[in-house]
Each structure stands twice: as structure tokens, then as C-alpha cells.
């Protein structure tokens, strides 16, 4: 259950209250009435640890995390366990989504100590914040053992813990410390061919995705593959993407009844999801399916894009136009309960149509997941439905859509998974980008309006006159200075938004935020960006986010932003910065493309620099829309009714006409008026 800030009268309803009652994060508020004397991360807790000469216990999680809830129920709600924690530690609870900088430091500690990580993350540290041990989930009895073990050592051999803390802290500072590459490098299509060849060895050509016992969507990898296919014409690369998109769309990782994707599949064929739904996954997958549709015209990809947007509108959109962070994996204390169906439930809802629905989605009396529990999954049973019921495929699809509507109405009467209703700048910017990509692919004005409302919301509520940002927002309150990913993805969204509106004020905003990032995040000695603002960096290590994961790294996204802004503003310094960033990790990109897939996209832009497509005249909107229905990853767009303020648009307006200029390295081909003619110049 999530709690809001309580009045003194409301506090009396609870047996326990701690310092988290004043927070806005749903995850922190969830722990506000534990018997553990939790503090949020901040000066008060750290000073209290020093004053009372106690260790820190730093527990990190997030609202949609199933095992975080389990550990809370088993240990943090247990007064016997809480008494041990309170007596020996200053206990700090951290929402990893609000404070990824704190999470990053102590997750690195967990990897150094145990070789693995995850959430809940529990780190033990000296009063100065230096960790000496970190792990993930602990069952209650094991947790008590660990607590007592470190309490005893702290009392009898504190120097041993201090030495381990010093050693571990040095290791944390050394992780992802990227030196400046001063050597000469060059990339070509041959480089990209070799990268694909290595990456393809890890692709599951049967069920899609990367090989493994669990499957994460990893949108950035498939975005690179689409870009590579476009540049190289490699049909196998496109087949890999299509196979992955098809299996994800048809599997249980996708909510077949209500739309939207879960965070990952717990098996190798996308059937059984870990049921939490994250904004960042759905944002990036919206972009990916929109691009997939542009390339292939597959109606399935359009359906997935539309349903994902409908899910976000219905369940993750705030009244102000911001987007909430996630939906919990659990409801009524059970993982996935909201999404699961018994055969009897479907028969009660659909009557005589239940048999067709069950065949289509692989629903059985036994249960296709756990006993009597089914996850609707098109990979299970749609192959022979049309033939079995003597229907055409369009008839089956139409019937299934009607039946899904009935089931959704029934499902919405259930107890919903709790939303994490904090609004994060970086994740919102990713969704704005997804909506812009969907607008380009499908031309739906509503999608652009959603993106416009969201971007304006972020600029109004989370930016300052000094061109700095905040990370979080909830109920009119922002509390945490932004991190590099907040700037990187908002800058990227602003660049994309300019390219569908030709409103230069948004491009200027992107430029202003980039100047701020260079002033407060850039490290000259390496040419990389720190994750934290130099005005708000008070952890034991100032880290860089380099490798791409389920979300692209902030450094790789800044490399892409600098590349594009360098073109728009003819800023050579930005271009050199972007080149240096890629050069610094070039070996990693080539050797481990799957871990550097967003970087690989920037490298591909350097291999084949983008066309500058200028559309100038009163009919620019119509012609731009025609152009952007096509997948053109190595093109940027600019233009409008007038020549504006960008020098690239100089002398391009011809009175009474709307002209299209396809330019390369600031040299333009013959201007044309018809989009199909301009497309021939691009290809």
C-alpha cells in the first residue's frame, strides 16, 4: 500500500511512523510506517550516523519491485528485526529511480563483493558512506544473521571494516573510469559488418531476442540493427529484428488484453513476464515498433504501437500531461494476479466465444503458467484458429478484438496494481520521443499532441531559468537536481520535437541545456561526462554512466545529441566532442556491440553522415509528413514557412513554392517540389 504525507491526526492511525512520511516517492512512503526507523538519503541521516557513531544500512529498491515487497513483509515489518536494525545502524531507504546516483555507487559495491546485483539492494557502510559489504535479497533468518555479524565486528574489530570500506571504495571509483583515447581511429561499413557478425552470434534465431534463459527487450540493440540494415542492406539483420518484434508482440511479455509490455520474460520464449510495467520500456518499444512499421509495413507493429499508447494514456498519464513511472508487479499481494485468467473466468465472461478465445491465446483448464492460471499468449495457440473455426484471418482478428474489450472491462473491476506516480524527467522524455516516432510513422495528430503536452509540462515544471533541470515531480513538488540522463533524453526529445514542428525555440532549448551540461557535467581530461552535476555531487565516488543497458547510457545519448546539434548549429566544438566520446569507447563498441548499442548508432552516423533535408514554404507540414513516413535514420529535418534563424536554411525560400532541399555536408542537390523525387536523392 502507498501512503501520502500524513497530518498529525492521520499519523495516529499507524503504530509506527518514521522520517519517510514527509517524502513524495511512493516507494519511500510505502515504508513510512515500518517499525524500522528509516531516513531518506540526505544530510540528516549521514550526520546522525557520525554523531551516534553508527554504521549505515542503505536499502535501495523501487515501487514495482516484487522482491522488495517480499523483503519488506518478511523483515522490515517485523519488530524483532527492526529492533536489531535500529539499535546498530542508521537505516536509509532509497528509491533507485529517484536517486540512481546512490544506487549506482552501492550497486557497484554489490558487484565487487558478490559478482552480481539486483533489487532490493542492501549495502552496509561506515558513517562516511564508504561501503564494506552489499548484497540483494535476504530471507528473514539470514538477514538477522548478517545484521548481528556486522554489529559484532563493528563493536570488536572496527578497523577490519574500515580497511574493507577503503578498499571497496577505491574499487568503486575505478569502475568505468574511461581514459581519453588520443590515437587515430576510423570506421567504415566494414566495421559495422564486423560488429553485426559478432552480435549475431548471441541472437536467438528461433524465439527472437538475445540467447538466454530470461529475455529482456533491449530496444537499443534492435534499433541499431534496423539502422545497420538500412545502411548495409543486410537482410539477415532485418530478419533478426522482425523475429524479435513478432515474438515479443505475440508473447506473454506483452499484455494481450490491455496493451503495454512487462519489464522482462522469465523464460526464453517471452511467455511468462515479470509483471511490472515500466514507462521506460514502453517508451522505447513504442519507438522500436514505430520504426519497424516504417521499414516493413507490418500491421502487427502498428497495432502494438497504438495499444501501447492506449495503455499509457489509460494507466500512466497524469492530469497535467506527465507520465507516471511504473505499475507494480503485484496486486492483492500476489505477483501478476491482475493479468491472469482461469479458463472458468473466461467462459463466464465470453460464453460461447470462449473456446475460440482460448484457442487463440493458449488458455487451458490446467493453466499455461501456474495451476489454473493462464497468461494470454498468441505464441501458444493462434496458428490454426482461423482454420479450426472456418473463418478468415481478418474475421478472427476482428472477433478477438471485440472479445478482448469484454475481458478488459471485467479486468478493470479487479484491484489494480499500484502505480508509482512520481514523474521522472528522463523517462518522460523517452516517452515523448516514442510518441514523436509514432506520429512520424502513423500521422496521428493525437500522438503529437501528447508529446507536445508532455514536453511543455517538463519545461514548465522541471526546468529553471539557469537552464538546469530537476529529476522528479509529484503534486507540484520537485526535490532532486537532475542527472545526466535527464538532460540527455530531454535534449534528444527536444531535437526530435523540432523535427516534426520546425519550432526553433525547442531546438534553442536543446542547445541551452547542452551548454549547461558542458559546464557542469563534462570532464575535460577524458572527454566524458559525469553522471552528477558538479554542484550536487557529494557521494564517495563521482561516476560516469558508459555502457548501454535496458536504457541507453547518458554518455552515448549525449554523443548523439552533440552530433545532431553540431549539424544544426554548425558548431564544430560539438562535433569534435561527439567524435571524442565515440573514440573513447570505440574498442568496446566493436568488441561488445550488444552492451554499447546506442554508441553503435552514433558510430553508424559517423560512417554515413546524415542528409540535411530542408523543407521550406507554406506546405512544409504536408511534405514533411510524407517524408517521415519513411524510415530514414541518416537524415535530419529542418525548415518551415520561412528561413528562420538556422544558417542551413539561408537562401532557401522561394516565394509561392514549397521546395525540398536534400543536402550532404552542407552541399545541396537540385531542389525539388515532389517528395518522391526528393526520396530518390536520399537513397
Descriptive keywords:
683 residues; four-stranded mixed β-sheet; five-stranded mixed β-sheet; alpha+beta; 28 helices
Could you explain how this protein is built, in words?
The structure is a single chain. The protein has 683 residues and is an alpha+beta fold. Helices cover 50% and strands 10% of the residues. The protein is built from 28 helices and 20 strands. The strands form seven sheets. It has a five-stranded mixed sheet with strand order 1-3-2-4-5. It has a four-stranded mixed sheet with strand order 18-17-19-20. A hairpin with a 7-residue loop joins strand 6 and strand 7. Helix 14 crosses helix 15. It starts with 7 loop residues before the first helix and ends with a helix. The N terminus is likely disordered.
Map the helices and strands:
Blueprint: H1 8-11, H2 26-30, E1 39-40, H3 43-52, E2 55-61, H4 66-76, H5 79-88, E3 89-95, H6 100-114, E4 121-125, E5 131-135, H7 140-156, H8 158-174, H9 189-200, H10 219-232, H11 235-250, E6 264-265, E7 273-274, E8 277-278, H12 279-296, H13 299-315, E9 326-327, E10 330-331, E11 334-335, H14 343-350, H15 354-361, H16 378-381, H17 385-388, H18 393-411, E12 419-420, E13 423-424, H19 425-442, H20 445-462, E14 472-473, H21 484-501, H22 504-520, E15 522-523, E16 528-529, H23 554-568, H24 572-584, H25 586-591, H26 597-607, E17 611-616, H27 620-628, E18 635-640, E19 659-664, E20 667-668, H28 675-682
Parallel strand pairs: 1-3, 2-3, 17-18
Antiparallel strand pairs: 2-4, 4-5, 6-7, 8-9, 9-12, 10-11, 13-14, 15-16, 17-19, 19-20
Helix pairs in contact: 5-7, 6-8, 7-8, 9-10, 10-11, 10-12, 10-26, 12-13, 12-19, 14-15, 19-20, 19-21, 21-22, 21-23, 22-23, 23-24, 23-26
